[in-house]
Sequence to fold (1032 residues):
Amino acid sequence: MHTKPIPMSSSARGGSIVIRKMGRGATWCMLTFYALLTLYPLIWLFVSAFKDNQDFFSRPFGLPSSWHFDNFSRAWKVAGMDIALLNSAIVTSVSLVLTVLIGSLAAFILSRFHFRLKGAVMGLFLIGMLIPVHSTLVPLFIMMKEMSLLDTYAALVLPYIAFELPIAIFIISAYMTTFPKELEEAATIDGAGYWSIFCRIMLPLSMPAISTVAVLGFLRFWNDFAFPLVLINKPSLKTLPLSLSIFADGYGTDYSLTLAALTISVIPTIIIYLIFQEQIMKGMLAGSVKG
Amino acid sequence: MTTAARTRAFIIAGLLPALILYLLFVVVPVFWSSYYGFFSWKGIGEMKFIGLDNYTEVLKDEIFWKSFVNNLYIVAYSVFGQVPIALLLAIVLARNSWYQRFLRASIFMPMVLSSVVIGLIWGYIYHPQIGILNFLLDSLGLSSWKLGWLSDPKVAMYSIGPPIIWANIGPYLILFIAALQNIPGEMDDAAQIDGATGLRKLFQITLPMIWGTIKVAIILCISGSLKAFDLIFIMTRGGPANSTELLATYMYNNTFNIFRYGYGSAVSTSIVIISLLLIAGSQFLMNRNKNVA
Amino acid sequence: MIMSRKWIQALVFLMILTTVLAGCGGGSTPKENTDNASSGKEQPAEKVKLSLWHNFTGEDLRAKAMRGIIEQFQNDHENIQLEIQAIPPDGYRQRLKTVAAANELPDVFIMHPGTIAKEFSSAGVIQPLDDLLNKHADWKDGYLPNSFDDFTFDGKIYSAPMSLSPTSILYYNKKILADNGLSVPTTWEELLHAVEVLNSKNIIPIALGNKAPWLAQSSILSSLADRVTGTEWFNKAVLQDGAKFTDPEFVEALSYMQELAMVGAFQEGFNAIDTTQMEQLYAQGKAAMMIEGGWAVTNLVASASEDILANTGVAILPSIPNGKGDPNTVSGAIGVGPAMSSKVEGAKKEAAEQLVLALAGPEAQKITLEANQLISFKAELDKSKVNPLFADLYELVNKVGRTPVYDARLTSQATEAVNNGLQELLLGAKPEDVAKKIQDAQEQGLKE
Fold:
């Protein structure tokens, strides 16, 4: 296993160690400050979730005057969050697995093979990143209806994959391009076919990029509102954002319940992110060639 | 099977699932929608064919072009804000100590929040009466610096910048860290032997090594910025008086508020075309730069 | 990571297969299968299935009352099986439009009056309720005059309003006004005076939250402009028949509106805060007045302290010097009503009619009124059953006439132009320019 040299501290030359150390200290102070700044909103969310509506408005940045734990149980019940969480989990995980598999397979081909139309195919996928999702809602709805897919998980999963594929292909193929050519050559000499090169070498090696794609996709799927709003009718198939939106009513919003529900919905994303973050950072630092 | 045929079969089998899904659920709806652009249609009832009328109206539409300029602001925020900051942070945070992991995790955190939360929070930061920003300015004795952050059309588009940069740095940070960790260790060793440190090493070795990733990031920025919708929609709804209107919010309003499906479809087709031109242009510029350097 | 090659291949082909199969299976067979499967449990035959969409998702009294009515209906009609879909109001219209575009409207649904109802009726996706209304004369005749106007197209009535919303009520804090030697402003001069006095005491005269820009239009302009121009002019301008929004009287109305902002009647940053925050400014006693629709009563009851609630009074907007309109009026619109898809027929139609009657009939109207929601139906209010503030509102509205609300009559395009135009106007744009934009939008909207 290869360990990386430390970028900033490794070569202390000349007599500037003290200055450098001070500079490092300042850097870390600033970084910590920045991190706290970015964390604050999350803390704000968690704290505000315990307030009642009036408290929320009169002292938006203070601690709750009394802690309302019942906000959570009320939110849970009102929004039917148990079903919603389950639906979101199913839709998100199925979409993620398929996006990663289909996307990295296509990325593998587009980055490591040469063939006619390769540029055209790549370009076609690139365009997909530019398309505003909302513009396709009506045609998609009509299509789903024709295919009898309305009110099924597939109505969400299929467009999710389709819309996430461009970015997945883009990121993973950019990453795969950086691998040296010898990688496949060596494997081919060992007698491995393309499928096994893909599964045994490319997939594991691309884990950092795949994790990135997975995190982005997870957040997109988990937080998406437009597709379920239009394509899902049955209450039993509601996803989380749809159930959260129940709190926003036309002439005003019940913020205490909304924030409690948002807190509940944010917790899985934080946990998943923390797991994935490890994955990205561990992810195969040195490849088989480099090692 | 010959090797060539096997390769061919593999290419087709590998691309097919992606292509089918993508064509069916992205490309077809887009063309379908650009077809609607030729009609005067309220979403239901009769579709009246009006040729290019919608498209010529788009070209003459003041608000459309204003939205376009606003989109360019967002492109600028992300290319000149997100990318450099994320890169800088990635370089400082490429190690794996627990503290660095903690910092990375917290910088990424805004990404896990839904736009609703982010919009809500920044709405409160900028709030004219109880906002924390005005409160800070007051307590620093800078009351004269107080502005109608989101309510003044001259200021609102600038106030949009920080939340956008802040909320979207996470993925770029990860992208850059992944790229940095992929730089072969030998490079660093070689740099040390040459005595290259600090800034010199950054410009001579690190940046060129991850130039490909930077390009990816910039293109992601541009395309993401042109699609920007949620956050603005929640923070300002494109207002006040269209001052923060974006192409996507304008399209959304036309289709789902005014119910001009035909015109909204023409706007969304125009967005796709404009984005294509912008991306092509930026790629051209970046490739040329690289050749020069 | 060991993944067998076959496994991947299988997965990929499965993907392709499902996509292709889905593409071919366009017929309705699979859908019917699942339908049978789900309903086959209890009573196999005869049961009528009816889909119902509504937007009563909130936790306010009215939404709860409506959901109660629906629940009761289910209990009372064992032969009817409802498939209920409750959609939050924010996305409700978009959702209806989308399914209408695919000709997939639910059997019965709650519909907004005005533009959307007009479009649905002219597209033939909903059916008239005349027969049903005529069968129940006590119901039809129980409505106040003009109640069906915004649901009537080509002489047919497509829905029956379930509520009435005065959009322009001046809520005022009696204590703050009295402490500063003021009373409720009934004329423009008194209003300007009140603004001056309150501003000098650092109290927000009128709270305004115009981030979602319909508020200034619906709650302020609709009444204010009517005071200046008169209803007759507005009706003509809507049809572009002998009056235009560039006419001097409308420009004058816009100037009055602008004057309010210029003299500091509203707090700073009114374009950046939403209606909830506006209500909070009032509810916390930071503002002396607030102009919003009758619906604000429920919100105030929920969020204001008892002290402020007890001191709150309701009034109509002040009169305008030399105005052509009747100053003793309030702008108001009928609320939503149940509509029936044109696909509903036979036994299904009978069931649907029963549901419509249950939702909007005399019984439902009474329940609605007791849930602190005004109705457009003759019914005595038992004051012991509602909040005192609502009782005041009820009395006020019954005392005054009703004038149209702008967005209920204008085309969607013109509504958008008014909403955005008012934001500009309140920030100092020229009234003539704003009027021009509104005129252009209305003209174009009528053409499409």
